Amino acid sequence: MHIQLKNHTFQIDPGKNKHFWMCMNSNNWEPHTFAIFDYFINEKSVILDVGSWSGILSLYAAKVAKEVHALDPDPVCFSELETNVALNPALSEKN
């Protein structure tokens, strides 16, 4: 499944959260969070996303930031995070 977050496109596996990811695709979820990311994150930024869930903010930050380190203590969420990062190999290869 492809999703659009503002001006960035990502491939994701929605797992059991398809409804949530569809909300993401409509740009209605936490617009203030993305505005803060857009304001503060640049190509020199190193981001630590603790409680990253399935990687929504980590993926978004990775489009611009120098590095993004994401973790989630829930094994299900962490597995989804790993899957979604793997589906977007260009994010790992950009540097």
* Secondary-structure element order, N to C: EEHHEHEHH
The rounded distance between the terminal residues' Cα atoms is: 25 Å
Unreliable parts = none
Q: What structural class results from the helix and strand content?
A: alpha+beta
Total number of beta strands: 4
Major sheet strand order:
1-2
Instruction: State the helical fraction.
Output: 40-55%
Gyration radius (Cα, Å) is: 12 Å
Outline: globular
Proportion in β-strands: 15-25%
Q: Count of helices?
A: 5
Question: What does the largest sheet look like?
Answer: 2 strands, antiparallel
Tell me, rounded to a whole number, the average pLDDT: 90
InterPro entries: SAM-dependent_MTases_sf
Keywords: Methyltransferase, Ribonucleoprotein, Ribosomal protein, Transferase
GO molecular function, one term: methyltransferase activity
Organism: Lacinutrix neustonica
Name its key features.
95 residues; two-stranded antiparallel sheet; 4 strands; globular; methyltransferase activity; ribosomal protein; methyltransferase; 50S ribosomal protein L11 methyltransferase; ribonucleoprotein
Write the layout of secondary structure elements.
Layout: E1 2-5, E2 8-11, H1 18-25, H2 31-40, E3 46-50, H3 56-62, E4 67-71, H4 75-86, H5 89-93
Parallel strand pairs: 3-4
Antiparallel strand pairs: 1-2
Please summarize what this structure is.
With 95 residues, the protein is an alpha+beta fold. It has helices at 18-25, 31-40, 56-62, 75-86, 89-93; strands at 2-5, 8-11, 46-50, 67-71. This is 50S ribosomal protein L11 methyltransferase.
